[in-house]
Write a structure and sequence with these properties.
Largest sheet: 5 strands, antiparallel
Strand content: 15-25%
CATH architecture: Alpha-Beta Complex
Shape: globular
Helix content: 10-25%
Structural class: alpha+beta
Mean pLDDT: 93
Strand order of the largest sheet: 1-2-3-6-7
Low-confidence stretches: none
Bound molecules: zinc ion
CATH superfamily: Peptide deformylase
Number of domains: 1
Radius of gyration: 16 Å
CATH class: Alpha Beta
Length: 202
């Protein structure tokens, strides 16, 4: 198993759609272990296969913190079967070193996937938790969607992208999310200059 190079934003392959996994072969097992090793090496919360150049529907997440034991969760061929509510919070992505911006997400999400053992499972992320947001973030990568496509302020996202030497928002990729936006109207906007508590990327 090895630590892989993470494909950076600007590389068009991040916009490709990934294919379903048909069999949990040796190749998939290696891919999963590479994802886990690379996620930990880069101190991330999650990592999706296309971020290491494999266009297969696989991602890993570990939302354990501090002294908790490591708890990597493997999602193969995930399907989001329920989503509701709205939240907004700062997110980063391992393909965007040190760039964080406020993004719109569903607060609750239920996902069905297959584990590395071949068994299906259902997992729920609730109340805008890190798990709920990470599932949506990683799932998006499999469809070529990036966190900045969900940005709450295009101006603010462009400001941070520019500061980090990254190319600006791709206007045609911005998502219209009326359901989430409507619910968010009643929530306060995160102030732009908040000091982030040990922010991690996905
Ligand atoms: Zn990401």
């Amino acid at each position: 198993m090895s630590i892989k190079k993470i494909i950076p934003y600007g590389d068009e392959t991040l916009r490709q759609k990934s294919k379903e996994v048909t069999k949990i072969s040796k190749k998939i097992q290696t891919l999963v272990h590479d994802l886990i090793d690379t996620m930990y090496a880069k101190n991330g919360v999650g990592l999706a296969a296309p971020q290491i150049g494999e266009h297969l529907r696989v991602f890993v997440i570990d939302v354990s913190t501090g002294k908790e034991p490591l708890n990597p969760i493997v999602f193969i061929n995930p399907k989001i079967i329920q989503k509701s509510g709205a939240c907004s919070s700062y997110e980063g992505c391992l393909s965007f070193p040190e760039a964080y911006t406020d993004v719109k997400r569903y607060a609750n999400v239920k996902v069905k996937a297959t584990g590395l053992n071949g068994k299906p499972f259902v997992m729920e992320g609730k109340d805008g938790s890190l798990l709920a947001r990470a599932i949506q973030h990683e799932f998006d990568h499999l469809d070529g969607i990036l966190f900045i496509d969900h940005c709450r302020s295009e101006f603010e996202a462009n400001r941070i992208l520019k500061e980090k030497g990254l190319k600006p928002i791709e206007e045609d990729k911005l998502l219209s999310e009326p359901e989430i936006e409507k619910e968010l109207e009643s929530l306060p906007t995160n102030p732009g200059d908040t000091v982030l508590p040990e922010q991690k990327s996905e």
